[in-house]
């Protein structure tokens, strides 16, 4: 899979592509990327890429000509083009899974007040928002989407690691623990030390349901509507909703070791 990132500041996404799991995926040839500096396609010697908007406004707008030529340079008409913007559709895990099936994606990173609407009308397939807030950097928003997408590409991360993550099966992830067994008086739940795989599976499902009910009850409703919950899960929900205080504990209620 290849990502084309059109940006005024290529140094921002470059660090991401050259680090951690992404760097390994690039090295193995699973992922490829192309950082396109929009300033390279500006008309004048000053590499001007912005101007004041028609009708007035407090900020500047990215010029359509340099951006259009940058899009032409990556043959964007034949690829799926994404513009990251606060006014786009909310980004979801389902959308990440859909985008991970593409061979190539083109990202337009906005700056200032955004980009000329004629670029959106002519080039953009998807306007995507990563949340109900505004960033000064389209590069950061594009990187968030790329990170969620590339890890779903086959060969980047093992399928086992993806199966019980947050949002898989319509639920959030269960709590995780590692060594030491006791940390600052708090003990790892005994069931995780038991070696009984079926009991551990049930505990993890219960914890996923409980966490989702507390933090994202809308997801449980959606999972039910879409038939994603098993009869076992539905029975656990009845138990959990009768023990809300137990599963909704705050951090000052700790699983402390008794002396």
Describe the 3D structure.
With 259 residues, the chain is of the alpha/beta class. 39% of the residues lie in helices and 16% in strands. It has helices spanning 11-17, 20-27, 64-73, 93-99, 117-123, 138-150, 159-163, 197-215, 217-225, 231-241, 244-247, and strands spanning 2-7, 32-37, 50-51, 61-62, 80-90, 104-109, 126-129, 182-183, 186-187. A 5-stranded parallel β-sheet has the order 2-1-6-5-7, with helices on both faces. The chain has a two-stranded antiparallel ribbon with strand order 3-4. Helix 4 (93-99) packs across helix 6 and helix 8 (197-215) packs across helix 10. It is elongated. The mean pLDDT is 92.
Count of extended strands: 9
Q: What are the segments in which pLDDT stays under 50 over at least 5 consecutive residues?
A: none
Largest sheet: 5 strands, parallel
Taking all Cα atoms into account, the compactness measure Rg is 23 Å
Total DSSP helices: 11
Distance between the termini: 55 Å
SSE order in H/E notation?
Answer: EHHEEEHEHEHEHHEEHHHH
Strand sequence of the main sheet, in spatial order? 2-1-6-5-7
Instruction: Provide the residue-averaged pLDDT.
Output: 92
Topology:
Blueprint: E1 2-7, H1 11-17, H2 20-27, E2 32-37, E3 50-51, E4 61-62, H3 64-73, E5 80-90, H4 93-99, E6 104-109, H5 117-123, E7 126-129, H6 138-150, H7 159-163, E8 182-183, E9 186-187, H8 197-215, H9 217-225, H10 231-241, H11 244-247
Parallel strand pairs: 1-2, 1-6, 5-6, 5-7
Antiparallel strand pairs: 3-4, 8-9
Question: What's this, in brief?
Answer:
With 259 residues, the chain is of the alpha/beta class. Helix content is 39%, strand content 16%.
């Amino acid at each position: 899979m290849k990502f084309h990132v059109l940006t005024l500041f290529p140094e921002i996404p470059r660090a991401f592509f050259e680090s951690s799991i992404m760097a390994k995926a690039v090295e193995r040839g699973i992922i490829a990327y192309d950082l396109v500096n929009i300033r390279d396609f500006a008309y004048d010697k000053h590499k001007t890429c912005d101007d004041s908007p028609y009708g007035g406004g407090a900020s500047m707008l990215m010029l359509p000509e340099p951006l259009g030529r940058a899009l032409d340079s990556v043959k964007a008409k034949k690829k799926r083009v994404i513009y990251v913007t606060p006014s786009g559709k909310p980004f979801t895990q389902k959308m990440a899974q859909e985008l991970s099936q593409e061979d190539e994606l083109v990202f337009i990173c906005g700056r200032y007040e955004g980009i000329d609407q004629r670029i959106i009308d002519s080039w953009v397939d998807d306007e995507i928002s990563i949340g109900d807030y505004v960033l000064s950097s389209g590069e950061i928003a594009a990187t968030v989407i790329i990170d969620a997408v590339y890890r779903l590409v086959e060969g980047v991360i093992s399928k086992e690691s993806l199966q019980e993550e947050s949002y898989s099966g319509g639920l959030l992830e269960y709590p995780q623990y590692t060594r030491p067994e006791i940390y600052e008086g708090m003990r790892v739940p005994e069931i995780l030390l038991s070696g009984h795989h079926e009991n551990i599976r049930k505990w993890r499902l219960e914890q996923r349901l409980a966490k989702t009910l507390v933090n994202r009850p809308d997801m449980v409703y959606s999972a039910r509507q879409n038939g994603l919950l098993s009869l076992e899960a539905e029975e656990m929900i009845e138990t959990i909703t009768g023990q809300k205080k137990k599963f909704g504990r705050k951090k000052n209620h700790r699983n402390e070791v008794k002396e």
